[in-house]
Amino acid sequence: MIKNIFIFVVAFTCITISSSYGYSTQNNYTKEIKLIKLITNKGDITIELFTNEAPETVKNFLNYVDNGSYNGTIFHRVIPNFMIQGGGLLPDMSQINSNVPVVNESNNNISNKQGTIAMARTSDPHSATSQFFINLKDNDFLDKVNAPDGYGYCVFGKVTEGLDVVQLIGSVNTGNKSGHQDVPIDTIQIEKVEIIDN
Q1: I need a surface site. Which of 6, 9, 65, 128 has the fewest CB within 10 A?
Q2: Residue 19: which residues within 8 A CB-CB, separation 6 or more?
């Protein structure tokens, strides 16, 4: 069972990371921002950010939102009954510029339940940059408490509206493209990410 989980996690890991191994602690925000909206070509997804439970991760995510990096990116990896992953690639499968990796805050012990959003990473626990995923089901095996590497994947928010859109994206047909697997046949684009005034 542990072997299967390890293979599954390895198969899921983030495609690319920054070559820098410093950790991002930058914060351009003077107030807490708790809600953002992903506007996709399949519908809108509203997400509540856990600013207190995962402060550095949220800061990192919001920096990408603030500079427009997520606008025009795609959900480039979709695995039914598991997760949808995006935030790093454009429709031509080229990579966006990323900041330095952010420290893994999975010690907040928030579980990878259905509808939660977490950071994607490589086998290095502290390698997350821009890519994130939304859980299509309860994926407790990704939690720190169950992770073979002792870290798991950091949850930093949850979907509050648009879970039906998430599930719709999670059911699309996928294939291989430019060396990547599980890529939606029809492009699923994040047209814009908006900060919702709290």
Answers
A1: 6
A2: none
**CATH of the domain spanning 2-196:** 2.40.100.10
- For the stretch 132-189, pLDDT in tens is 999 999 999 999 999 999 999 999 999 999 999 999 999 999 999 999 999 999 999 9
Please give the average per-residue pLDDT across 99-120, as a whole number. Answer: 97
Number of Cβ within 10 Å of residue 16's Cβ equals 15
Distances (CA, A) of 177 to 5, 93, 180: 25, 8, 5
Tell me what the pLDDT averaged over the chain comes to.
Answer: 87
SS (H, E, C) the chain: CHHHHHHHHHHHCCCCCCCCCCCCCCCCCCCCCCEEEEEECCEEEEEEECCCCCHHHHHHHHHHHHCCCCCCEEEEEEECCCEEEECCECCCCCECCCCCCCCCCHHHCCCCCCCEEEECCCCCCCCCCCCEEEECCCCHHHCHHHCCCCCCCCEEEEEEECHHHHHHHCCCCEEEECCEEEEECCCCEEEEEEEECC
Sign of CA dihedral 75, 76, 78, 82: negative
Domain boundaries, the chain: 2-196
